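[recover] target loaded
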């Protein structure tokens, strides 16, 4: 059979072989050819053939990836009793990362990183999480978001080649509330609505100034993106207007949408990205996957010039990049984002610490662990629980590098200290979403930082995090 080659996101895919095998490992020839940092502008395969081929491969790709997730995690729906996000969605509880056979968390924590690596006992769920099809990559949205956007705007965010992977109960509530630093008296300014181009003016007129309203308009306006545009190398069946900033950062928060970072090559080294919340960006000083951007203005401009197109300005030009004007449009968008507040935390005092008169004994014990034995506060300093720095956890000392679902699991490098305020509203956790619950996060850092917390200390720490 004659094989035709097409390149996506810096990786060559052998069409005939890949249609049958899904996302199999690339051949030596393909790996050699994939070393280019550039994607081709000219695509030789007709769009109809691309759609037919990828639709045919999709069920097997998704089955393999979902089987992979089930091997790593307990994906059951188990809500914590009496614990909800800000608008009432239940918070999932329990450690969901599966352990190797005959190993307990206590056994594991007693070992050195070298012993864990040599015995290959590092839990698979603590390894980097690949994209559902890492060779392909691209923006993926949860089905609930796709459905609601289609209802509001008749804009279709369905991909013909892939579906989103993590179950809904591990994702943030939808739509999330939106709080403004300038109008705390209003509570949820969205009033339970998904904010879109169709309703932003009605919801915010009289609350924001004209600059901020214009900034919000731009944040909910669709612009072309790598997978959603009018060209023959898109991944939406019909030509589309594109995506909005709020398609990922829904209502100024997050819906768990995923993508691959645009600033790493080759493809297998690109990190999966768990969309971070925009709440509290006014107190943050590092942005972008490599944290090279020092202001929310930098981040806003970079997103539409580069991140929307996998960091490829040539492809961006082809697909219709939206060049924002720095002095007005970027400034307006950034000014609105700087108003996005964290959710209320009634148990915290003005210093960001628990008020003993309002907190439970479990939460107070957890606070002692956080600032004491666990040493969390070295990086996560109150009142917003970040130090605005980068830290290298050196997770790679616990395992040998390997390919996992097309993702090269090796050194992650320095990662940003994300704010912990409102953290129960923002699952999953870590920069690539590999940790599904706060319990998973506590076990991960207990092992990585070699703290050796006991069971009660872990439970108390989770209770404190839920109160932030």
């Amino acid at each position: 059979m004659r094989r035709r080659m097409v390149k996506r996101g810096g990786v060559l895919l052998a069409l005939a072989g890949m249609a049958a095998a899904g996302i199999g490992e690339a051949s030596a020839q393909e790996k050699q050819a994939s070393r280019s940092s550039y994607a081709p502008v000219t695509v030789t395969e007709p769009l109809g053939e691309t759609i037919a081929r990828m639709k045919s491969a999709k069920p097997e790709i998704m089955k393999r990836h979902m089987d992979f997730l089930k091997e790593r995690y307990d994906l059951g729906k188990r809500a914590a009793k009496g614990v909800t996000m800000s608008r009432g969605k239940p918070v999932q509880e329990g450690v969901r990362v599966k352990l190797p056979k005959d190993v307990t968390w206590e056994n594991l924590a007693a070992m050195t990183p070298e012993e864990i690596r040599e015995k290959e006992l590092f839990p698979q769920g603590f390894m980097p999480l690949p994209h559902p099809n890492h060779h392909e990559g691209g923006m993926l949205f949860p089905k609930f978001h796709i459905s609601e956007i289609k209802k509001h705007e008749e804009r279709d965010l369905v991909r013909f080649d892939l579906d989103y992977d993590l179950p809904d109960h591990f994702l943030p509530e939808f739509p999330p509330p939106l709080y403004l630093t300038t109008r705390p008296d209003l509570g949820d300014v969205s009033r339970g609505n998904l904010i879109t181009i169709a309703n932003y003016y009605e919801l915010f007129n009289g609350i924001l100034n004209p600059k901020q309203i214009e900034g919000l308009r731009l944040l909910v306006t669709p612009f072309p993106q790598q997978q959603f545009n009018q060209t023959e190398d898109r991944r939406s069946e019909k030509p589309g207007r594109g995506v909005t900033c709020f398609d990922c950062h829904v209502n100024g928060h997050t819906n768990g949408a995923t993508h691959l970072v645009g600033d790493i090559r080759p493809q297998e080294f690109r990190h999966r990205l768990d969309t971070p919340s925009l709440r509290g960006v006014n107190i943050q000083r590092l942005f972008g996957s490599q944290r090279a951007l020092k202001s929310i203005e930098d981040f806003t401009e970079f997103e539409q010039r580069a991140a929307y197109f996998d960091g490829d300005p040539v492809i961006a030009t082809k697909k219709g990049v939206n060049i924002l004007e720095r002095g007005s449009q970027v400034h307006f968008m950034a000014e609105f984002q700087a108003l996005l507040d964290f959710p209320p935390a009634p148990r915290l005092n003005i210093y960001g610490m628990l008020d003993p008169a309002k907190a439970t004994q479990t939460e107070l014990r957890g606070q002692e662990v956080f600032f004491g034995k666990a040493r969390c506060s070295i990086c996560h300093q109150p009142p917003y629980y970040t130090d605005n720095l980068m830290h290298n956890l050196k997770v790679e000392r616990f395992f040998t590098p390997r390919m996992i679902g097309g993702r090269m699991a090796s050194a992650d490098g320095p990662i940003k200290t994300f704010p912990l305020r409102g953290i129960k509203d923002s699952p999953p956790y870590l920069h690539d979403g590999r940790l599904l619950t706060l319990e998973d996060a506590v076990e991960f850092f207990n092992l990585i930082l070699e703290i050796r917390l006991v069971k009660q200390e872990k439970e108390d720490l989770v209770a404190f995090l839920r109160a932030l």
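[recover] notes: The first strand starts at residue 5 and ends at 8.
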